[in-house]
Write a structure and sequence with these properties.
Blueprint (H helix, E strand, L loop, with lengths): L2 H14 L5 H12 L2 H24 L6 E3 L6 E5 L6 H11 L3 E3 L12 E5 L5 H16 L2
Antiparallel strand pairs: 1-2, 2-4, 3-4
């Protein structure tokens, strides 16, 4: 705690929290100080990037999708051809094993954009790529 803030923070704590979780705070302090949290973030970013890249590779088999590849995050947006409603595409994607939401369901305008929001968190890259490839094959036939 910076010295100029110590007195104010201690006064606030005495009014709001008489039993601070010192064990948890000490563990968190060690985690941060020893660099374990930073290492965890690096691993998590690598995993998310591998999952994203595998998903994009699988989706690239569909000639009628436009995929916006994000630099960060755990979702991407895939644009659909005009002939395919995103609600129908979402059902096909779910059947292929992808976690998706119809983009139009999130719209606040009267002319919602058609597309899919596809999550890539929590799955192994090979599982995502296989599911995306199945989905790409299914919508390529539409």
């Amino acid at each position: 705690m910076p010295d100029p803030l110590l007195e104010t923070i201690m006064a606030l704590r005495s009014r709001t929290d008489r039993s601070p979780p010192t064990l948890a705070e000490a563990a968190l302090t060690d985690l941060l100080r020893e660099g374990h949290f930073a290492a965890h973030l690096r691993r998590a970013r690598r995993h998310a990037q591998a999952a994203r890249d595998a998903l994009v590779a699988g989706l690239s088999a569909a000639k009628n999708l436009s995929v916006a590849v994000p630099d960060q995050g755990l979702h991407l947006v895939a644009g659909l051809p005009d002939s395919l409603a995103d609600t129908a595409a979402a059902e096909i994607a779910r059947g292929a094993g992808l976690g998706v939401r119809a983009l139009s369901s999130m719209a606040v305008t009267n002319a919602p954009r058609q597309g899919l929001v596809i999550g890539f968190s929590g799955f192994a890259p090979e599982v995502l790529q296989a599911a995306a490839t199945r989905f790409a094959a299914a919508i390529s036939n539409n």
